[in-house]
Each structure stands twice: as C-alpha cells, then as structure tokens.
Amino acid sequence: MDELLSRYFSESIQILQRLDVGKVELMVELLRGTRDQSGRLFILGVGGSAANASHAVNDFRKICGIEAYAPTDNVAELTARINDEGWESSYAQWLLGSKIRENDLVLVFSVGGGSLDKKISTNIVRALDVAKSAGAKIIGIVGRDGGYAAAIGDAVVIVPTISPDLVTPHAEAFQAVIWHGIVSHPRLKMNVTKWESS
Known about the structure:
The chain has 198 residues and is an alpha/beta fold. It has helices at 3-18, 21-36, 48-62, 75-85, 87-97, 122-134, 147-152, 167-183, 194-197; strands spanning 41-44, 68-69, 105-110, 137-142, 155-158. It has a single domain (23-191), classed as Glucose-6-phosphate isomerase like protein, domain 1 (Rossmann fold). Helix 3 (48-62) links the parallel strand 1 and strand 2 (68-69). It starts with a helix and ends with a helix.
C-alpha cells in the first residue's frame, strides 16, 4: 500500500481510539435539549466544513427532527452579506437576522476553531460571540487545539492531531464520522433511514 495512504488510515484508527466519547455524549444531550425546547440548530463551517454543514443540516432535520440551518445553504444571502457587510461579520449578521435566542444551539465544524490573532475563520469567531451574547449554547467538532470554538464552547470535540500535515483531512473526515454517530444515537434518532428499514 502507498506510504501516505497507509499512514492516513493508521492515523484514523488512532484518532478513533483517542476521541473523547464523553464530549460526544454531552453534545447529544445538548441537541436533545434544544429539540425538546423547540430551539433551532445553526451549523457553521467554512470550506470543506461548509459542505459538511449542509449535509449535517439534512441529517439533523430528517433523522432527528431538529429544525436546522446553515448560512452557506443560501448563497444569495451569504454573498450579499459578504458584499455589503464583509466576510468577517457575515455569519454573525446571519445569526442576528435569524433572531438567535437562548434555546438555540450553534454547531461549529472547523479545522482550527477560528482565531482572531491568526486571522483564520474570523467569521466563525464573530458568530460565536453573537451566539454567546444571545445565551445560545455552542457545540463543535474541530481539529488542532480547537481554537476559539473550544475555548468558549459548551461541548466541543477536538479531533486529535497525530501528524500536523494531515490535520485538515482528518478534522473534516471525522466531522462526518462523529455527526453520523450523533444522528444515529437512540436519544436523538426519530426516523428510520431508508437502507436500515428495507
């Protein structure tokens, strides 16, 4: 087997063995509480994590019966906000436009969790400030040290870094692994998926 592929898959096994399952369970409880209180789930991501956010919106809505949205699913609004107000405030303004409130929940998918100092994913940082100000809870699946999301979140799973040169592919891959585990959890799952029911 190719050396890189062998290392990638070997590291994936190590990551699975090191994941903080307790944090994932806490995410399940916060998601259930949000649904029970008729709160909404807002999923934030940039780049590959934005694509993951769109897929996760579908799963949380269809499988778990949680009202869920992602700012990147409405390209017209997102690009208008970027054009008129700037990238840094685009997600924050979207949350404000959605009238985020105390019983809502924000889920962050990010490789680094956002950093003002490094000027990376600053739109996520600003959005998390808005969420906190509104009293909403914050959960996330992030890589590296978790950045701003891990620092202020209520339950943030950090995908362990095995090799610095594979942080991004592992972080984005494990976002999918973890959220699929969450939507399949018996405390959240409300609807049977097609292949499991046939």
